Amino acid sequence: MTIIDKPADVPAPRPDTDSGTPLLEVRDLHVEFKTRDGVAKAVNGVNYTVSAGETLAVLGESGSGKSVTAQAIMGILDMPPGRIPKGEILFRGEDMLKMSEEERRKIRGRKIAMIFQDALSSLNPVLSVGYQLGEMFRVHLGLSKKDAKARAIELMDRVKIPAAAARVGDYPHQFSGGMRQRIMIAMALALEPDLIIADEPTTALDVTVQAQVMDLLAELQREYNMGLILITHDLGVVADVADKIAVMYAGRIVETAPVHELYKRPAHPYTRGLLDSIPRLDQKGQELYAIKGLPPNLTRIPSGCAFNPRCPKAQDICRTEVPALSLVTEQDGTELPGRGSACHFWKETIHG
Amino acid sequence: MAEPTKLAKDDEPQDDATPNVSEVETVEAASEEEAVAALDAHVERGEPILQVRNLVKHFPLTQGILFKKQIGAVKAVDGISFDLYQGETLGIVGESGCGKSTVAKLLMNLEQATAGEIFYKGQDITRLSGRALKAVRRNIQMVFQDPYTSLNPRMTVGDIIGEPFDIHPEVAPKGDRRRKVQELLDVVGLNPEYVNRYPHQFSGGQRQRIGIARGLALNPEIIICDEPVSALDVSVQAQVINLMERLQDEFNLSYVFIAHDLSIVRHISDRVGVMYLGKMAEIGTDTQIYDHPTHPYTQALLSAVPVPDPDAREGRERIILTGDVPSPANPPSGCRFRTRCWKAQDKCAEEVPLLAVPERFQGTDSPAAHESACHFAEEKDVVHAA
Question: Are A229 and A261 part of one and the same domain?
C-alpha cells in the first residue's frame, strides 16, 4: 500500500511553556582534541538555542564540528583526548558542564536522547532488540523484565514496525536498514525526552525509506512537542523539516537563518557556494559550481575568516580579522529576525 | 568466485522480455588474434559500444556443510537488456539491493553471468578468455565507491596508478611509466609531485581523483563508475563531477554511472535506467525519465527526493512508499513492484510486464513514449511544483 499525500503543514513552533527559558542553550562552546600533530580545534565558539517543539538543523561538511557539538551536549565526548576549555551548555537554564556525572546520567536518555547515524553499528548484535529497548525502562524506571518487554512492544508499535509482538525477540541483523533506524528512534523516544539530537539519521538509507523515517520523526516530534536538533550535510533533508538552520564551518557557526530565508537569500559565501554546488532534480544544469579547495585542517585553521582561502570574495581584512556573527538587516536597516552571518561582506552577499 | 549455477527451467528469461532493443551485430572471430584485432575497431560516436542482452545473475543459496544442496537463489540481476552508446553517459539508479552493483561487476567480468550476453564491439565478453579477455579488460575500467578502501594503504600513489601498466606493459614501456603517472595526476587535478605519497595523506576527494587516474591509466573506452561520489562532501562532490565531465569530453569516454542520488544522475547522464529488484523498470533519456516518468516506481522515487528549496517543496505532491524492498531470493510474482504499488491489480500478480513503450503512447511523439515495464503506465510529473 502507498500513501499519496500533500505535505503536512509544518506547525509553527509552539511558545515555550517555561516563561522564555529555551530548552537548550549552547553558549560560546569550545572543544579541542589533543593529537600527535598538535591541538585540533574542533569547535570554536558555538552558540545556539532550541525551544520545545522547534527543529534546529545544524548543517555542515565532515569535520565542521557539528557532531562534536552534539556529543558535548550529550556528554559522550571522549575525554581525553577531548577537552572543553570554555563554554556553557544550559539545559532549562542549568549548566550541564558543571553538573556531576550522576546528575548528567539522569538527564541523558530521560531528558535528552540521541539518534545515531549508523543503526547497525549502534545496536548490539548479540542482544535482541526487545532487550535493548527494554533496557531503557529497566535502568531508568526500574521496571521488571516482563513489564519492560511489554513497553518495548508498545514502542515498536509506535514507530510503526509491523508485527511488533512477533519481532520483539529478533536480533538487529534480521531487520532492514529502515526498520533498524526506526528501532533507534524508538529507543530515543522511550522515556519521552524533551530534546532529541538526531545525528545524520537518514544518511545511510535509500530515498524512499528516508522519506518514511523523516516523516515519522516529524510526526512524533509534533505529538510530544519535543525539541529536535537535526545534524546533517544534506541540504535537501533540511529544507523539508527544519524551522531554523545553523551552518557550520571549521567549528564555528557562519550563518543562522529561518529555513525559507536561507534558501532564498544566503548571507554567507559558503552557504551560497553549497547551494550552488548541488545538482537539481528539476533542471539539467551546465557545469556545477564547485567551491574550490578543501575544508581546512583543524590543527591549522587559517587566520581571520576560516573560509577565506576558498572564498571568491576574500579581501585583506578576511585574512586578518575573524568576522563575528553579526545581525543581518534589510537594505533599509530593518532587522531580519533570527538571521546572522559571520562574514565581513554579508551585505554584498545578501543584497548584491 | 561463485560457480555458475544452472537456471531452473521455469526461471529461463523470456527472450522477448525487452522487445525494443536493437539487433546485435556479432563478430565471429575464428582465432584469438582475430578477436583481439576486432576489439581495436573504432566505434563512431552515437553507435552502440556495449550491448547487454537478457543478463542474469543468480547467487545460489545452499544448505549443508559437506553435502551442499542448493535450496534457492538470490536473483540479483534477472534479465536486463540495454545499450551503451559511444561517448554517452548511461545512469543506473535504484535502491540498495536492486542489483545495480552486480550489473557493474558483470560488465567488468568480475562475476560470471548465469545467463545472457554482454557484447562489446560485437563480441560476447562473457565467453572470452585469454588474450582477448585481457584486451577487453583494458578497455573497460572501473571507479569504485569508497575511496578509503579501494586504495591500498601500503602502496604509494605512483604505484597505485602505475599498477595497471604491470599487467598491460604494452601501454607504457617501463622507463616511461613515472612520467605517465605524473601526467595522469596532472590530468585529474593533483600535483604531479605527489607520486611518492601514501593514500592516507590525501582527503576523500583527492583519493577519489587517484581512483579516477587509475581508471584512466590504460586509455579505456568505457569507465564504469559505481557510486563514485556518494562518500564525498557536497562541495567536493561538485569538483569530482565536473572533473568526470571534463575527462569524458577530453578522452571521448563512455560512462556507466551507477548511483542512488537521482539529482546527480540527472546532472551527468544522457540516458537513465531505473532498476528495481534485478529488473529494469524504466529506461529513457534524462528528460523522459525525470520530466515524464510513466512507471509508478520511478514516480515514487523521484517524489521522495528531498528538494533543497522549501518553497518548491510545499506545492509538491509526495508519494511515500510503505515497506521495504522484498527479498530478491523470493521476489513477488508478476510485476515485482506490485507489493508496494498503489496501482496494483490482479493482472500485476499474474503477468510480468515487459519493458516496452506503453501501448497508449506508441507511435506518438510524446516524451512519455519510452520503455517502461508497467501494465498501467501513465505519465505523471512529480518533479516540478504543481
Answer: no
| pLDDT tens per residue, range A59-97 | 888 888 888 899 899 888 887 888 898 899 999 888 888
User: A265 to chain B, minimum CA–CA distance in Å?
Assistant: 11
- Any domain includes A329: yes
pLDDT for residue A269 is more than 50: yes
CATH number at residue A45: 3.40.50.300
Same domain, A42 and A188: yes
Lowest-confidence region among A278-287, A295-304, B61-70, B266-275: A278-287
Q: Considering the domain boundaries, does residue A2 fall inside one?
A: no
Do residue B322 and residue A211 have CB atoms under 8 angstroms apart? Answer: no
Residue numbers of the domain that contains A318 = 252-280+287-351
- The answer to ipTM > 0.90 is no
A74 shares its domain with A169 = yes
How far CA B144 is from CA of B139, B149, B222, B256, in Å, comes to: 16, 9, 14, 12
Q: Which chain B residues are closer than 8 Å to A233 by Cβ?
A: 233-234
- Nearest CB partner across the interface for A294, out of B203, B316, B384: B203
Q: Cβ contacts of residue A332 below 8 Å, gap of 6+?
A: none
Residue pLDDT, tens place only, A201-240: 887 777 777 888 888 888 888 888 899 999 988 888 888 7
In a domain, A68, yes or no: yes
Mark whether A268 and A208 lie in a shared domain.
no
Task: Cell numbers for A220, please give them.
Answer: 512524533
Regarding whether A311 and A179 lie in a shared domain, the answer is: no
CB-nearest partner of B308 from A176, A278, A287: A278
